[in-house]
Amino acid sequence: MFQNRTEGLALVLPAAVFIAVLFLFPVGILLSEGFKVGGEWSLAGYADFVSKPLNRTVFFRTLKLGFLVAFVSAIIGYATAFCIVNLEPAQRGRVFGLIILPLMISPVARTYAWIVILGRTGIVNKAIVGMGLSDSPIRFLFTETAVFIGLLQLFMPLMIVSLISAMENLPKDAIPAARVLGASWLQVFTKVILPLTREGLVLGGTLVFTGALTAYITPAILGGSKVLMLETLLYQRVNVSNDYVSAGIIATILIVMCFGANVVLRRVAKA
Amino acid sequence: MGQTWASRLIIFTTLLFLVGPFIIIIFAGLSAGSSLAFPPDGLSLKWYLAVFEVESFRQSFVLSMFLAVGGTLTALVIGVPAAYAICRYNIPGAETIKIIVAAPIIVPGIIVGLALLRYLVVPLEFTVTLALFLAHTALVLPYAVRVVSASLQNLRTDIEEAAVLLGCNRLQAFTKVILPNIRSGILAAFILGFVTSFNQVPVSLFLSGPGVRTLPIDMLAYMEITYDPSVAALSALLAFLSIGIVFIAEKTLGFSRYV
Hints:
The structure holds two protein chains of two kinds.
Chain A: H1 5-33, E1 36-37, E2 40-41, H2 44-51, H3 53-85, H4 89-104, H5 107-118, H6 123-130, H7 144-168, H8 174-180, H9 185-196, H10 198-213, H11 217-223, H12 230-241, H13 244-270
Antiparallel strand pairs in A: 1-2
Chain B: H1 2-29, H2 46-50, H3 55-88, H4 94-106, H5 109-124, H6 128-153, H7 158-165, H8 170-181, H9 183-199, H10 202-207, H11 215-225, H12 230-253
Helix pairs in contact in B: 1-12, 3-6, 3-9, 3-11, 4-6, 5-6, 6-9, 7-8, 9-12
């Protein structure tokens, strides 16, 4: 550790100034726009924003999808991570590679695949019509279900990876011990696995929840203007109606929710 | 035995959900027909080849490459000294500086893109390319600082002191002793930054201007007007590119240690 403070500051300053000027300063002004109406400081923009039913629908939908994606990722993630941790090391490495593979692929490409799968002439509809379950193709695209599926596929690897590293630290004898002592599998999960992997769950949950809240591509491609989320609503407000008050408000909501999720969940992990 | 089969089935189903769509994209791009379908109407490589003929894809690919390489290199030039200072110096306000430098990861990209456009790019009349370059650099900077910091923390501090005792000045100690030792950390930061920047959409969404678009934005625009398999083919090619880069990095550096 060097004690020369000026030298240290000189080294770190370019990066800090770069981000402060190009990042914090413009973002700060954008957030302040939500608190201004006609150049005057006021909360009228917020009151107006909340009074519109569409805005409320989009806000609650975004929150709901964020929770649902995080919750379902956690359920599938626990089952999958548990199975992967119990594999032999060589196999485990290969499966782990396949789990993180989607993270390296462009989200545009990953979301585009769902058009091929869920579209009018997609595999799912071909199967449904082919088996005679329905006479005409069912509309999946531009529904909340499609957005949910897309987001789940996009963010689930983050949950699985967090849970795998948490479970690797689980004492090997803990589960057999609980079983020998008469615990059911449900009890093993709630009394042994859950408390001991809580930090991994919280980390994965934060990543998935904030990721789903702030995703743009998936709701844009799979939801369109029928299933708006906060990010697509923001884009629409700016590009269609040039409404920077709403844009500032949505930006503030998104940032508050992301920071809030980080803070609250970190508390939960420590409690 | 029953338990093993159940566990295999669970892993298989999860992988099918995560990787399956990617396999479908590869095959949808191999279609011989003219509209997007799976299973494809006959097999041909024509859409994979057609991608290279589309002028706007070529232009946006060059721009995305420039942003990913140039932006990440710039981020490293200012990020490596910052990481070094954070790890080795007792700087005032270190915690605040760390939060500032990490901010681009936490703030949603679309907000950053819009804010930059409205309050810096338009008033100062930046060109679209310069705006995109600055935004991509800012976006990659936190990753550069974090990965290089991790690499520096694993490095013993006494070898640097030894270099100084043996007559190096501080700069020489850094370039001759520290830099060669954190080489693979820097390379890992470069690859992570490259992939992040190349696949980035929300930041570029507002900043892209007429005729100047990054490749993912161009693909989104192309998808809205046509329904042919070329976007599937291009998606598959890009995916192979990213996977190839990460695979080579993992084999040569053990990339996953740094991320």
